[in-house]
Amino acid sequence: MLNIPSAGNYVFLVVTSGVNTDSCTVILGMDTYNTPVCNNYYSYSQGTDQPYNTFTCNSFMDTQLYVVAGSDPGTIVAYNDDYSGTSDYSWGGSSRVHKTYTNATSGVIVTMNTPSIPPTSPLYGLSSLYLGCKDVPSYTQQFFHNLKQYDGIISAPMSTVYNCISWAGGEWDHWEWPPHPSSDYYNAIPLVAFDNYFASRNRYRYGGTIMQDPVIDLWAEYDVQDTTFTHASVSTLSNPYALGFAWESKAGSLERFFHPRNSLHTNPSYVNDGYGEICLSYFKIGISSPSEMSEDEMLAQSLLPDTTEFIPSVFENIQFTAYELATISKMADAIAISDESEFINLYDIANDIFIHSPISSLDKLSSEKSYQALQSFCKSHPSVMPLIYLRLDKGDIMATKLIGDILIPAYPSHFEQMRNYIKNHRITKDGLPLRRTLQSNTTLFVKSLLADSDLPAQKNAKEGVTFSTDSDCFNVDVRGFDVDIKLALESTSKVHLNVTTLNGRLVEEIFAGSQLENGQYQMTARLPGKGSYIVTCIINSRIYSRKVSVR
What is the pLDDT of residue 287? Predict the structure, then answer.
């Protein structure tokens, strides 16, 4: 029995500690109600510093949200049933709370009404719940004026490692742009290059048109003369890693976020707004046949992560050798100080603008004035190319872009060598697809340039590079998983010092071309586990290398 103290609107929340109770009978005055029972409580704290989103989605049930603050039983500080805020997405029976809280919350209660779905259905009780999600920030919103306020919800932080294309393919460890000449999937026809990449991810173009329920949308900007592909967004019901309430995009180096399907369209009233428009769609072919599944079972399967749908593959990591890095460093040392300073200034400006923009397309980057100034300077001052090589070695996508625009067209025979290598190295010994990133293939191209003794700059640099076994200035001792390294410099020197695995994967970089004064230096590197490693030290143009092993 519950006594109501005064007239007003009240919410009756019936909670059970069991898991098999779906409903109970509640009598209010002369009325009897069959009331859903809540047995879904999620402990989660949302702060007071900004608005937070709590929402349900991908549900075939009518959900209700109750945000709780305080200790058990706590106080309900926010409630929603069937979100109806201003949005380009139809939330239907899903619920959403968007609020800046006065006090930190302690949890969320979710209830569900299931009048039309029998308990035997695979859709029964199925819903996604998101807690503590932030709004897309204003500096990202400014690029998308057709994205309504609060329609963009962050799903992952900023990252320069991957972009929209790789995320649409279910990957987040590299930047992919298939039309770039260093891509494994390159074709002179850009659309064919995209088809090549997405086919490798079990995604196929839908008849050259836009479809109603696709996996991926490809975006483009059109003008009288050309079509520029700009972006790919992924359906959250189709990618096993992309979830959320509708569609998801990785906006260049900016955040990954959920959004309604068409909300990234260009608004012609603004400059550099949006991604143009959706031009093509891709769909997926399931690995297992659904012929014996009911419609509900297929719908349920589409809502659950399926990490087996992408074909397994192996990445070949191509890096510069210690000798090649020493050659590049020697070439860089010969660059005029004024040219080096101007290059650094132009590169930093262009790269800063790039990584703080939603640009994923390396083709679109060509239209940026800061990049055009950098490219023009590099073309007129070819001596700065070694500085680009060094940035390529650090994984900068900007360096990959510059080499693709300047050097690849200038050296077609070396480009053909790179493409032939890619063509002839597509399968591992175990029969798995063998792949390389843009940076790895670009490194392969530069390695072929460095090996060409007919190029004067390379020849002159190589003549000043020597290996040494002299241990007076470089000593290495192993203590368990610790490597003690000692350097003795007779004069001010430029020093590179790192630890790698035997196949070249970087374990720790201690110095990256640092200028060190004469004197004694001692440092310790920590090895990640048992195995063999290479400790490489480059002092000016002299290379020292030691192999160490931990058993």
Answer: 38
Q: Which amino acid is at 61?
A: M
Q: Cα(231)–Cα(278) distance, rounded to whole angstroms?
A: 9
Decide if 56 contacts 127 (C-beta within 8 A).
yes
Domains 23-134 and 468-550 share a fold: no
Domain range summary for the chain, segments of one domain joined by +: 23-134, 138-307, 322-462, 468-550
- Which CATH class name applies to 23-134? mainly beta
157: helix, strand or coil: coil
- Between CA 419 and CA 536 the distance in angstroms is 30
Q: Any bridge partners for residue 494, and if so which?
A: 515
Quick count: other Cβ atoms within 10 Å of Cβ 340? Answer: 17
CA-wise closest residue to 395 among 160, 180, 156: 160
CA distance 418 to 414: 6
Burial class of residue 50 (count of CB atoms within 10 Å of its CB; 0-12, 13-18, 19+) = exposed
Distance of CA 156 to the CA centre of its chain: 9
d(C-alpha 495, C-alpha 186), whole Å: 37
Say what percent of the chain tops pLDDT 90: 53
Interval 411-441: pLDDT, tens: 999 999 999 999 999 998 888 889 999 999 9
Tell me which DSSP letter residue 135 carries. B
User: Partners of 77 in the beta sheet?
Assistant: none
Given this model, what pLDDT does residue 13 score? 63
Pairing state of beta strands 314-315 and 434-435?
parallel
CB 408 within 8 A of CB 181: yes
3-state DSSP call for residue 315?
strand
Among 55, 102, 60, 58, residue whose Cα is nearest residue 79: 55
**Residue 235, H or E segment:** strand 227-235
Q: What is the predicted pLDDT for the residue at 208?
A: 58
Q: Strands 128-134 and 52-57: what pairing?
A: antiparallel
Tell me what percent of the residues of the chain surpass a pLDDT of 70.
81
Q: What is the mean pLDDT of residues 248-254?
A: 96
3-state secondary structure 414-446: HHHHHHHHHHHCCECCCCCEEECCHHHHHHHHH
Specify whether domain 468-550 bears CATH 2.60.40.1930.
yes
Q: Which letter does DSSP use for residue 308 in this model?
A: T
Q: Please state the separation of Cα 546 from the chain's center in Å.
A: 35
Partnered with residue 542 across adjacent β-strands are 466, 539
Q: Which residue has the tokens 């940076």?
A: 439
Residues 6+ apart with CB under 8 A from 91: 57, 82, 83, 84, 245
Region 358-364 average pLDDT: 95
